[in-house]
Every structure is written in structure tokens, then in C-alpha cells.
UniProtKB/TrEMBL annotation, chains A, B:
Its EC number is 3.4.17.19. Coiled coil: none annotated. GO terms for molecular function: carboxypeptidase activity. The keyword Thylakoid does not apply. InterPro entries: Peptidase_M32_Taq. Keywords: Carboxypeptidase, Hydrolase, Metal-binding, Metalloprotease, Protease. PANTHER family: CARBOXYPEPTIDASE 1 (PTHR34217:SF1), METAL-DEPENDENT CARBOXYPEPTIDASE (PTHR34217). It catalyses: Release of a C-terminal amino acid with broad specificity, except for -Pro. Belongs to the peptidase M32 family. Broad specificity carboxypetidase that releases amino acids sequentially from the C-terminus, including neutral, aromatic, polar and basic residues. This is Metal-dependent carboxypeptidase. Pfam families: Peptidase_M32. The keyword NADP does not apply. It comes from Pseudaeromonas sharmana. The lineage of its organism: Bacteria, Pseudomonadati, Pseudomonadota, Gammaproteobacteria, Aeromonadales.
Length: 493, 493
């Protein structure tokens, strides 16, 4: 009885969240600038509604009563996830939720222009409020859960993950990654790569993107692909919206971006239809989500054996070129080069971008630095990790990401956790089904790969906690050794 | 105190309606088919929420208390419009609202395919429920207001309008329109028109559409234009979304369609910013809305003097052609030809399409015919009014319109009321500012026209009832004689 009341309520919340997801997508892809104030207000009102309904007085009664009911194992796990969502929502006052949504919408919207104009001072004007509200959020969450403020934000994206474990993971990385980057750069220094010659028209790039999405079995009956400043995967599982951005001089960025977002999309499209409205039916965590996009982009699409699949599509889009040769493309797509932009980074240098952001946002939330201190710390670490000078270049520095603009602190670590999970999943899958060289030579090889992900990840949704999900799929919990082995094998063997 | 509570509540409703407007637009323009079930459920949930919040117990208390407050004239009129919306919403049970929204979404979505397939039987399967729920709605509304069931629906779109007045208006039309159609066809029989030679690429038509929207001062910072099966004007005043459909063989349909929707859009974009969230700040009625689109399309854009403005844009889009000559275009755009499709009809035969629909929907709602009787009655009247045989051709007959698919009965008369108001506004404007021949010869002529509409219609929003609005703008209430004079002057003089 109480459990079914909870199911009804979460189904209602799911319907409201649907409207927010589509209007959020619209804001990033379709909406003209003049629409932003009203949109921000509408989305803030929705945030308030969702918060009110999720935290209404009857909810705690229903949860307590349902926990006394006779329920099967699936309903029991469903209830655990319901309580988790309820708990995370109910510690925050509705006013704070709405204020943060409003400040985040404003800051994010203005950032699109400010980033283009390298306008750090303008950005600060909006961003200080986002930081203040996020600190307040972390303080309240931390007090309620007994966690450190930053841990309490981390837990929103990676349930169960703590700074303590992350400090170990990133500490371990710092021990071997700089040396590995150096060794790879050394090794690639004299490598000859034939560069594709542009321009590559946006129309043709879009066609190539659609071809690749079709090959990766994106369901176009339940989703679409558009353009936005910052690529993302949004919408709802029945209608997944992925975006990309195009550069006429370089088709690799949009191609790999689309493959990446298609990984996110297939996870969403592969969730079990019967529980989409419930917390237990949603994706497990941001790290697991990212593991799917990075599985698609890094493990699969940049694997040398995948070039045979990609090549005909690239040639169909752009005609023949000397650069369009499998071994050359494989070298191009595994080229390691320290750079400013996280989303354009290769998989070897990428974790250094995350180490930097993890440090900045942890210090920012816990108050040991202020918003105006970010550029200096950013410049220092970029110099130290990658030997790059970012002073004064905010556009390609601390203004490059969308995450902080709306106060999504605690999210960045998920990217590197995702890379590690992806490597671990790829290792387990290849032990089970044969390595990618064998698999991708088979005509049904992609089906086999997607079948493994469907069985082990997508259709599991949130039926188990992350450790259990990963152990069932791979035989062990998170083990960063697989990521190291992957990089070593691909870049140094 | 109570009045400000009402302002807060209506502002909240406005924010929620924003999300529905954008998601409704998305459904018609962007959404893949597989997304429809979840979207319909989400929009139905939103309908229920809006209904609940609008009709919550405290609302009737606040309304009654506010009506005792000392308020200025503007707040007093605002309160009248609040009560009207509240009254119309509160007579319906929430279950009926949600059931109708759900049945309407399903029927409308399936109709897109069914219309293509001429599938009347398939359509009936969904449509019977829409009719049953609409009759129930009309019965409940009628019982609460003492109006006839159909009048109670009419009043939703045209506050104050009744069948009795419409029967007079349409009775009058029936007296002179058939003879006028005959006389015009007679007169145009030997008229030579040079037809533009296609195909006209969709890209170029879209460019032309954007050029014309810019000339008509559509604010692209607060709106956009896309493609849908059935053209409409949606979105919100800060972000107005108009749509069109393209036919490569004929650019006139999309061109005039865009001009028509731009008229709707400018009304929305011209509403006073300070009261957008309140009933008093919204468009006056569907008939007044349609008067703006028809003012743009019929009074302005098909006026011979407007061709000098349109010609350079058409030539820029499609190059030079013998057909692209002002007098020839003017003849083309005032060509009268009985046809199957309402939205493609000329302004002379158009009212016959409305007379037919008015009769059908009135009888359908009041129960003297059933859904399955529509095709026969349709065929009979099309024969009688326009001499056309529609038997078996549902696609171009009773399946052609979107309105009935989601139960929007009572809306159709607004089109002809709009044509009459448009003629009346055009007559008043020309008395005041000079006739269109003079005005459109002036470089600032369009500004003068839009300024008149802005002052007299757009910025008045719902500050006055329809009769008062029209009397202040034109010196008299609705007077169909202006429409007759317009047709006679344009087509027979």
C-alpha cells in the first residue's frame, strides 16, 4: 500500500522531470537568447515543485511504512533508491534549491557569451553567487550526513565514493601517469601521421555522425542529434537527445564526440522499460554513465581494429584521402598531446585535467580558496602537469567547462572513474568474448559487445550498488590497474 | 493581500505553462515517434497540475477577498480575467481534464500518420473517446453556466460569443457569399496568370521565409521558425515558435503561411512585458488572435501595394522569372478557387469551410450526429457550398485539420471572426493613417501599420473585453459589413 503510493509519486515526479529535461535540452540547442529569463524562471519553478513533491510530509511516512511491508527483492532495492533520493532532497530548504537553480541558469547562459569573449570578470559577477549557494548546499548536506562538505556533493553523483578513496586513486595516478605521458610523447615524437586535409563541411560531418550513430545502433525512433556549444546527452530514455559541435577544420572532434555521447545514449535507451519512472530504474551513477561513453569512444572507437568499420563511413562522407588509411587513422586517434581543453584531450592526458579540477573544486567548496583564486591555481597546475601556460587565457582555461557554471561541483571525478570502469569492463568483456581484434573481425562483433553491455550494465540500471554491479560484471570492485594496463598496452607495447 | 497572492499563483501557473508550451512545440517539430507515449503522459500530468493549482480551495477564497479589496482599475480588470480562468477551470473534475489531455495527445499523434494513409476508420478508434470526453466537458460547463453545451465551449475561445450571434453572422454570410464567390469566379475566369515555375528548394523557401519575417519585424531574439505537419504559432511571448510546411512545387503556401503565423507571433511579442504572467496580460481571444494573422496575411500581404515589398525578396530567393512581376503576383495572391483544404483556401471561399465545420461540431457536441456521421455531412456541404466531391477522400476532407483531434471544439468560428475583425481593423487604420496604397509607398509605412496594431491591439492584451477593445480601436463593435466591403472592393471593383 505505502510502496504503491511511493511508486505513484515517483512516477509523477518522472513526468515532471521529463518536461524539465526537454526544456533544458531546448535551452541549449534551440532557444533564442531573449527566451532565457523566462526559461530560467520556469525551470526554477519546476525545481521547486519537484523538490516539494519529493520531500512532502507524507513521503517520510510512506517510506517508513513501506520499509515494514513484505516486498520482493526488487521492490526492496527500489525502496532503497527511493530513500536515497528522498534523503538527498529533503535536507535542502526549497528556497535554496530554487535560488541555486535560478543563479545557475543565469550564470550558465551568460557564460556561453562570456567564454567566447574571454570575460572572466563578467563571469565572476554571476559565479560568486553560484559558489556561495553551492557551499551552503554542501554545508547543509554534510551536517545531515556526517560527511565532509565536498564528500556530500560527491555522493550525489557517485553514491558511496569519498575523498579518501579518490585521494588514493589520484595519488596512485600521480605516481605513474606523468612518467607514462612522458614516455608516450617520447615514443610518438618521430611517429609519422598523415593529417586529413579539410575543410570538412558541417553537412558532411553531420551525415558521418548519423552514419556512425546508426552503426552503433542508436535508436533514432527514440532520440535525435543536434548542435550545442557544449556537447551533452539529455532528454529522457524514450527520447534521448545528444548534441555535438562542429569545426570545419577538423572532423575528428565531432566524430569522437558523437561516439562518446552515443555511449551515454545507449545506456539510457537500454534501461529496462518497466522501471524507467523509478529511482531503481535509472542509471547507476555518473561514473558508470561515463564508463559507457568512454567504453564507446576510448575502448572501442579508438581501438585499431575499429578503424576498418570507421573507414568506409569516413570515405563516404569526405571522399578518398591519403590520410584515410586504417593504420594512419589508428595513429591519429591515439595521438597523445598535452592540450588546454579537457573535452579534446586524449585519454592519456585527460586524467590530469580531472586531478586539477578535483583539487580546485574541493578547495573552493571547503573554502580554502575563493572564486577569484581559480585562475592562478589553474595556471600553476597546468604548468606542473602538462607544461602549458594558461595565464590570461580563461576561454581555454577555467571558463572552458559548463559544470561549475550551474554549480555541479563534485561531478568531475566521475570522468576519470568512468575511464577506469570502462577499462575494467573492456578487460572483463574481452576475457569472456575474445579480444577486440577477434571480435571486430566478426560481422556480429558489435552485437556481441553491445549484448555484453546490455546484460551487465544497461539492463541492471540501479538494481545493485556500484560495487556489486561492477563485481558482478567483472569479478572485482573498482581496480585502477586495468586502466593503467590499458594505457600501457595501447601506448607503450 | 489576497490580490497579491493571486498574482503569485498565476505567475507560478505561467511558469508551468511555459514548460508545457515548449514541450508541446517540441512534440510537433522535433520529437521522434518513439517519444510520444512518455510525452503524452508528461503533458497530461502537467495539465492535471495546472488544473489543481488553478482550482485549489484557497483560490475561491482569494478571489472573493480580492474582490473586496481597494484596487486600481488595472488590477480590477486583472481580477475579472483571473476569475474567468478560474471559473472555466474549476467546473471540470481533474480526472476529466487528464483523461481528455491523454486521449487528445494519443489521437493527435496517431492522426499525423492516419491522415497520410487516408485512414478514417483508424482515426475513429481514437476519436470516439475524444468526442465522448468533449461532450462530457460541454455538458458540465453548460450546466454550470446555464449556456447551451456548445456555447460553453465557444466561450473558452471567444468570451461572450454565442451561437445565437454566430447563427446571425453565418446566416448573413450565406445570404451574399455564394453569389459573391460565383461573381468572382466568373470575373477571374479569363484572367491570365503566369504561374511561377518550380521546383523551389526548401532551403531557398526557408531563406525567403526568414527574409519576410525580418521585414515584418519578427524579433528573432525572442522566437524562431521551424517545420511541422500543421503550421502553428506556439511557445511563449518571450520565445515565440512559429512553424510552416514546405512544398517544393509551390512556394506560395509556405510564404503566406509564414506571414500568417508572423501575425500571430507579433501579437504575442507585442504583449506588455509587465503582465505576461497574468490572465489580463494575455491575448484577448482566439478571434482577435486570428485577426492579427489575417491582417498580416490577407489585409496586408495580399494587398497589391505589398507586392513591391515582396518582389525583391522572392527574386533574391529564386532568381528572375516572368511570373515575378507585381501585377501578376497580386493576381496570383488574390486568385479565388474552391478547394478541399481550409488552410490553403483563399479569403473568399474560406468562410464556407468554417460554416461547414461550425455546423458539424455544433451537431457533434449537442449529439444530433455521431463521429461516424461526419464524412457524409462533410461531403454534402462541400458539394453544396463549393461544388466539390469529397466522398472517400478523408485526407483532404474531415481528416485535414488538427483541431478536433485533441478535442478543441468551438475553436473554428474564431477564424471567420478573425477575418471580420481584420477587415474592420484595416478599415479603421486606413481611415486614420491613409490607405494601404499610400502607406506602403512610404518607407516607414510598415512601421506606421505595426504601430497602430501595437497601440490598439497588442499592448491592450486583455485589459478590455472584446467589444470594448474593438470599439476603442474602430469606433464600433463587430460589424461584418467591413469584411463584405473588403471582399467586394478587392475582388469585384
Amino acid at each position: 500500500m505505502s510502496y504503491s503510493q511511493l511508486v505513484d509519486r515517483f512516477t509523477q515526479l518522472h513526468h515532471f522531470a521529463h518536461l524539465g529535461a526537454i526544456c533544458g535540452w531546448d535551452r541549449a540547442t534551440m532557444m533564442p537568447d531573449g527566451g532565457n529569463e523566462a526559461r530560467a524562471a520556469a525551470l526554477a519553478e519546476l525545481s521547486r515543485l519537484l523538490h516539494e513533491r519529493l520531500t512532502a510530509a507524507e513521503m517520510s511516512e510512506w517510506l517508513a511504512a513501506a520499509e515494514q511491508q513484505e516486498l520482493d527483492a526488487q521492490a526492496r532495492q527500489s525502496l532503497v533508491e527511493m530513500r536515497r533520493q528522498w534523503q538527498q532532497a529533503s535536507v535542502l530548504p526549497a528556497d535554496l534549491v530554487q535560488a541555486k537553480s535560478l543563479a545557475g541558469s543565469r550564470c550558465e547562459h551568460a557564460w556561453r557569451e562570456q567564454r567566447r569573449n574571454n570575460d572572466w570578470q563578467g563571469f565572476l559577477g554571476n559565479f560568486r553567487e553560484v559558489v556561495a549557494l553551492s557551499r551552503e548546499e554542501a554545508r547543509i548536506r554534510g551536517a545531515a550526513t556526517g560527511l565532509r562538505p565536498y564528500d556530500s556533493l560527491l555522493d550525489l553523483y557517485e553514491p558511496g565514493m569519498r575523498c579518501q578513496q579518490l585521494d588514493q586513486v589520484f595519488g596512485d595516478l600521480q605516481g605513474w601517469l606523468p612518467a607514462l605521458i612522458q614516455a608516450v610523447c617520447e615514443r610518438q615524437r618521430d611517429q609519422h601521421i598523415q593529417m586529413p586535409v579539410g575543410p570538412f563541411s558541417i553537412e558532411r560531418q553531420a551525415e558521418l555522425g548519423r552514419d556512425v550513430m546508426a552503426m552503433l545502433q542508436f535508436d533514432f525512433q527514440r532520440g535525435r542529434q543536434d548542435v550545442s556549444v557544449h556537447p551533452f546527452c539529455g532528454g529522457v530514455p524514450s527520447d534521448v537527445r545528444i548534441t555535438t559541435r562542429y569545426d570545419e577544420a577538423d572532423f575528428t572532434q565531432s566524430l569522437m564526440g558523437i561516439i562518446h555521447e552515443t555511449g551515454h545514449a545507449r545506456y539510457e535507451q537500454g534501461l529496462p522499460p518497466s522501471t524507467l519512472a523509478l529511482p531503481v530504474g535509472q542509471a547507476r551513477s555518473m561514473g558508470i554513465h561515463e564508463s559507457q561513453s568512454l567504453f564507446f569512444e576510448m575502448q572501442l572507437a579508438r581501438h585499431p581494429a575499429f578503424m576498418q568499420r570507421l573507414l568506409p563511413l569516413i570515405q563516404r562522407a569526405f571522399g578518398a584521402q591519403p590520410a584515410f588509411e586504417a593504420a594512419n587513422l589508428a595513429r591519429l586517434y591515439t595521438r597523445v598531446e598535452p592540450g588546454f581543453i579537457r573535452v579534446d584531450a586524449d585519454e592519456v592526458t585527460y586524467p590530469t585535467h580531472i586531478m586539477l579540477r578535483y583539487e580546485v573544486e574541493q578547495k573552493l567548496i571547503e573554502g580554502s580558496i575563493e572564486a577569484e583564486d581559480i585562475p592562478d591555481l589553474w595556471a600553476e597546475r597546468m604548468q606542473q602537469y602538462l607544461g602549458l601556460d594558461t595565464r590570461g587565457n580563461y576561454r581555454d582555461g577555467c571558463l572552458q567547462d559548463i559544470h561549475w557554471t550551474d554549480g555541479s561541483f563534485g561531478y568531475f571525478p566521475s570522468y576519470t572513474l568512468g575511464a577506469m570502469y570502462a577499462a575494467q569492463f573492456a578487460a572483463a568483456l574481452q576475457r569472456e568474448l575474445g579480444d577486440f581484434n577477434q571480435l571486430l573481425a566478426r560481422s556480429d562483433g558489435l552485437e556481441a559487445v553491445f549484448g555484453w553491455l546490455q546484460r551487465n550494465i544497461w539492463q541492471q540500471a540501479s538494481r545493485f550498488d556500484t560495487d556489486t554491479l561492477v563485481r558482478q560484471a567483472t569479478g572485482e570492485v573498482l581496480n585502477p590497474a586495468h586502466f593503467r594496463a590499458h594505457l600501457t598496452q595501447r601506448y607503450l607495447d
